Amino acid sequence: MSAIASKLFQPIRVGTVQLAHRVVMSPMTRNRNTADHVPTDLVLEYYTQRAAKPGTLIITEATIIADKASGQEFVPGIWSDKQVEEWKKIVDAVHAKGSFIYMQLWALGRTAYPSTIEGKGFDYVSASAIGLSDRDKVPRALTTEEVKEYVQLYGTAAHNAVNRAGFDGVEIHGANGYLIDVFLQDKTNNRTDEYGGSVENRIRFADEVVDSVVKAVGQERAAIRLSPWNVWQEMGMKDPVPTFKTLVERIHSKHPDLAYIHVVEPDAYGEGSVAEGVVRSNDFVDEIRLPKPVIHAQGYERATALKAAEKEGVLVGFARAFIGNPDLVVKLEKDTPLIQPDYTKLFTQGADGYVDYPSAEAIAVGA
């Protein structure tokens, strides 16, 4: 299939913005922020480079909603005035390139490093007192009142991102074993209050967070990322479909104009161990949501992205391909070979392996 004929390179409306194509830059943690979780000038340069193709949607790296929700060094936040100020510079630069940017809102939960979060004076917490094998202690279960406080923190973070820093929207990080995900999955939620037990109760936190964010910024500037089949960070249900189908149906029913739902493909982090007869597929999300926008992410190459985008409403997320190829969209259009990133520099500080990858145009002119 030619690039011209493919829907991958055709316009689509997502929330309040009109995109020029359906290639999305997915979120990636890169650890180039300050110790106070403030984006640096390098972060500004990084996102500006990747906004070069006008009409591109960029989703930022996971960004902490509040200091108490942190627990990892050199990742960004969105609670302080300084953080908002520096993010606004990035948003303005992306908009100046004719592109668009959503912030991914993040709370770590049990994936936080206990010494890091406790060093800030906060407790190491999660949905339940169920730990990770590579952490040196077990988290404390959040109280019911604390869960409700987190719901409000997501709304405040969304307000800071959209109404103060100027982001086009926010994506709630409900995937990959972080705080929202551990409430959703029965493997990591043994609560006995209104946030645990039944499917209805386990989806309640995510449902309330979406409501809080929508109240703060509106449906068309809100989105959520989910990973029903994720096994990374010791996650994985025997059959995630009943839980995640109920959640997606609930969100779509209450907020049909949500900007998008973003799903991680089943093979992103390995196969895991599902019950016999369970088919590992995100088709149920498409069936509920399409033709409203759905982003499918992880593991895509040009050929598979071209095919996926033939479904009306589907966008395709690329993450690591954007690292070595700031002009990825142009290269996909022209079927130009991609530069492989230096994976040893994914999470280091400094410009190396971050903002020093040339565009195809720069290579052509010998820059």
Task: Give a nutshell description of this structure.
This protein has helices spanning 41-49, 81-96, 114-119, 144-164, 179-184, 199-202, 204-217, 241-254, 283-289, 302-308, 320-324, 328-334, 360-364; strands at residues 12-14, 17-19, 23-25, 57-64, 100-106, 125-126, 140-141, 169-174, 222-226, 260-264, 294-297, 314-318.
Identify the notable features of this structure and list them briefly:
alpha/beta; two-stranded antiparallel sheet; 13 helices; TIM Barrel; 367 residues; globular; eight-stranded parallel beta barrel; 14% strand; 12 strands
Helix and strand arrangement:
Blueprint: E1 12-14, E2 17-19, E3 23-25, H1 41-49, E4 57-64, H2 81-96, E5 100-106, H3 114-119, E6 125-126, E7 140-141, H4 144-164, E8 169-174, H5 179-184, H6 199-202, H7 204-217, E9 222-226, H8 241-254, E10 260-264, H9 283-289, E11 294-297, H10 302-308, E12 314-318, H11 320-324, H12 328-334, H13 360-364
Parallel strand pairs: 3-4, 3-12, 4-5, 5-8, 6-7, 8-9, 9-10, 10-11, 11-12
Antiparallel strand pairs: 1-2
Name of the CATH superfamily? Aldolase class I
The total strand number stands at: 12
Radius of gyration: 19 Å
Structural class: alpha/beta
In DSSP terms, counting alpha (H) and pi (I) runs of 4 or more, how many helices? 13
Number of individual domains: 1
Description:
With 367 residues, the chain is an alpha/beta fold. The chain has 13 helices and twelve strands. Strands 3-4-5-8-9-10-11-12 form an eight-stranded parallel β-barrel, surrounded by four helices. The protein has a two-stranded antiparallel sheet with strand order 1-2. Strands 6-7 form a two-stranded parallel ribbon. The mean pLDDT is 96.
